[in-house]
Write a structure and sequence with these properties.
- Helix content is 74%, strand content 0%.
- It has 214 residues and is mostly helical.
- Helix 4 packs across helix 6, helix 7 runs antiparallel to helix 11 and helix 10 runs antiparallel to helix 11.
- The N and C termini lie far apart (46 Å).
Length: 214
Amino acid sequence: MNLLESERDDAVRIGDPEAAASVFTSVRPRLLAIAHRLLKDAGEAEDVVQETWLRWGRADHAAVVSPPAFLAKTTVRLAINASLAPRRRRETPASAWLPATLDLGLGPESAVERHAEIDDALRLLAERLTPAERAVYLLRQAFAYPYERISVVLGLREDHARQLSRRAGGHLATGRRRPVDAAAHRRLVQSFLAAAQTGDLASLEDLLAADLAR
């Protein structure tokens, strides 16, 4: 049975609280692994999974097509939000939840989870940062570009790039939400994944620079 078939079966079984609890219990180890990968702290990962359980209890189970995917996505968002709390931002590198490389040996379930993590992380950047802030932040935090290189790629002064990076860190800690263009977001996710998997960042550089020119 493949992952999609398993998720469809889970969706069919959801019809009462006991079934919902059983589904959660079956995927809880995966949820803990996701939260721990993002937070690097067992206690905080447990807290996130507990909050996921509470949200699962309040969810309309009949409307959830894939319970495992719903629970994984909820865990990712909660862990990202936890990682951006002011206290944690002083203690944890800003790029901890935005991996620069992908494990090409991941199984199907882990690959889906990692894709969801990156999709959510990039969506959060789009919601909270300007295109210039996002471009500088991605190149600096995810791919360790020096500011001199960032200034060349994006056509910015080096001191401006540094300023944008500082602003991005501050804006990520806020709760503001900018509208996100769905097509533009898909292009960014695809380009980021390709860059992380192959190490060829030319297309991502071009996309980020083009966003600044709009």
